[in-house]
Amino acid sequence: MTSSPVPATTTDQQAVGQPAPPPLVRLEHLHFSYPDGLEALKGIDLVIEHGEKVALIGPNGAGKSTLMLHLNGINMPTHGAVFIDGAAIDRKNVKQVRAKVGLVFQDPDDQLFSPTVFEDVAFGPLHMGVPREEIHHRVEAALAAVGMSGFERRLPHHLSLGQRKRVAMATVLSMDPSILVFDEPSAGLDPRGRRELIRLLRELPQTLLVSTHDMKLVSEIFPRTIIMDGGSIVADGDTPSLLADDALLEAHGLERP
């Protein structure tokens, strides 16, 4: 299956003779091996356009998390290349890339380490060199976007899991990224927290790439789905078609929502 169509805006630009902007994410023949020799990614080719909402699914050990860690330079390719907004990631530009690619980990405690919510959310902009007078506005806007206004002086470890997940999301939103990359965002949430997460994901204007085992979440939010298995992309297409293919899902350890 092929990736989703290029957005109409890009097509319109091409029609009037303007150069098309580069895709937001492009992976070219991406390979990655761990020091012990395990080949986790085996020649990944992938394009994600601005504004897409994409689910990344597959069994444990498929390579999903390894792939996501390449998008902001935590992992660097053994072979191949990763492009963000047309620029290949390297050691020289990784700081700029991390401002564009917001990675939200499965466990919010991996991202929350400051004494207060305000300090956690302000950390990224501070280290990006954002003027201090702008940081308050960024923190307030990020917390408002995730429904956590008024929690600035709270201690993160006193919050519920759902609240900590939202604050972790705010720590990324405060850096004004172009794409948000989530690892299992619904894991551990109660029904109320899951409903709030769905609302947030629907309302976020950023491009989304979300790795999840929550197939109902996939069906409710994402027009496009990518299936990985064994370090390779085995299917990439519109979500309803992929989730209706029982043989495909069963072959890769998945099931209908």
DSSP strand content? 15-25%
- C-alpha geometry: globular
Number of strands: 10
Quaternary: single chain
Number of helices: 10
The helix fraction, in percent, is 25-40%
- Overall mean pLDDT stands at 91
Which structural class is indicated by helix and strand composition?
alpha/beta
Which spans of ≥5 residues are poorly predicted at pLDDT below 50? 1-11
H and E order = HEEEHEEHEHHHEHEHEEHH
Distance between the termini: 21 Å
What order do the strands of the largest sheet run in, or round the barrel if closed? Answer: 6-7-8-3-9-10
The radius of gyration is 18 Å
- Can you summarize the main beta sheet? 6 strands, mixed
Explained architecture:
The strands form 2 sheets. The chain has a 6-stranded mixed β-sheet with strand order 6-7-8-3-9-10, sandwiched between helices. It contains 10 helices and 10 strands. The chain is globular and about 50 Å long. The longest helix has 14 residues, at 132-145. The two termini are 21 Å apart. It has helices at residues 8-15, 64-70, 94-100, 117-128, 132-145, 161-173, 191-203, 215-221, 239-243, 246-251, and strands spanning 25-33, 39-48, 53-57, 79-84, 87-88, 101-104, 179-183, 207-211, 224-229, 232-238. With 257 residues, it is of the alpha/beta class. Mean pLDDT is 91; it is low at 1-11.
